[in-house]
Amino acid sequence: MGIGVTMRYLIRAGIIAAFLLLIVLAMAFSTANAASTPQQVTPTPAAPAITINSDRQCLDCHGKPDQIKDLPNGEQLYLTIDATAYAASKHGKASIGCFNCHSNITAFPHPPAAFRSLRQVAYDFSQSCKTCHPNEATKQTDSIHNQLHLKGNDNTATCSDCHNPHYTQSPNTPRANIPNACVKCHSRIVAEYKESAHGTALVKDDNADVPSCLTCHGVHNIADPRTTKFLLNSPQLCASCHTDKVRMSKYGLNMDVYNSYVADFHGTTVTLFEQRAPDQLPNKPLCIDCHGTHKISSVRDPKKGLEVKENLLATCQKCHPGASANFPDAWLSHYDPSPQHNPLVFYVNLFYQFFIPGVIGSMVVFVVADAGNKIVKRLRGKKD
What is the model's pLDDT at position 313? Predict the structure, then answer.
């Protein structure tokens, strides 16, 4: 009897265990089936776009510090704008707002930008400058900067490289700031210029009489200074300042440098080349061959100035390697002969100014008198 009771309990326990197992399996199947069935998720509605209609709204975000966008090439585009500096800029004072340049941005979130690099940003946004500055944009189209860009060079200067669009000021205020725009690309040349007689006077004294980069190279229609046309025209370029009587008199400089240059063998040859073979460089020196281009020293500089005979000889020997110590004495410099400069030549010229007309005049008088005498004799002979 004890064994029978035990068996009945075991059977009941087995039935209960089997029943529980079935329940567990059913629940597991139901859970797996539910997991495999796609759930219908109701998307969260996107926040409505915010219309932007004032600069104040732009600065609410872009006035915050450290607004940076990572570009695909690894560069970072800094998007923070100093509102105070912008208001004090040329654009800010003229009430030129954000939408004048960023006309495609009218709401937030902004449309996605396709910029891949900072250079692409500079070139793309410079296109908006044409709206207000069409003449300057047309000139820039013909410049060496744009010509190189069209050939695939993305490192050439465009509008925003020289004129910061958010903080731009008048490019000539002060003039001493002009080299600071060029130095971004032409660091070596600007360093030489700042050590020159011209650059020192501009940067240290803001001297309005000396040439800046723009004086020689232009502003927007910058020509290629390596071309034959530019080089042949360089004497006239120098003459634009060095023949100015008022300007030269301030510094005791000779204003006859151009006339004396084109009158001598060097300048005459260059002028002929310019007129008859404008596509060929002459084999005679231009102003820049003797005085340099950017690192021009004062002629009175004891170390480099060409008024010092030793310095002049070293310059002459670049083309005349066999020139002796007395070679520079044969050159009259850029001064017209005078009692102060080359007095011997001056007095010889003065002598011939009277001697030659006197000789020719005497010969004319002699010929006329002789002819008159013969005519008189012939007339008398006929009467006899």
Answer: 93
**Domain span at residue 345?**
338-371
Co-location of 331 and 351 in the same domain: no
Q: What is the DSSP string of 8-58?
A: HHHHHHHHHHHHHHHHHHHHHHHHHHHHHSPP---PPPPPPPEE--SHHHH
Answer whether 0.90 is exceeded by the pTM. Answer: no
Report the phi/psi class of residue 111: left, alpha or beta, with left for phi > 0 and alpha for psi in -120 to 50: beta
Q: How far from chain centre, in Å, is Cα 339?
A: 45
Cβ atoms of 196 and 190 closer than 8 Å = no
Residue found under tokens 């120098």: 238
DSSP structure class, residue 69: E
- Which residue, of 318, 336, 354, is where some domain finishes? 336
Which residues, at least 6 apart from 29, have a Cβ–Cβ distance to it below 8 Å?
A: none
Rg (C-alpha) for the chain, rounded Å, is: 43
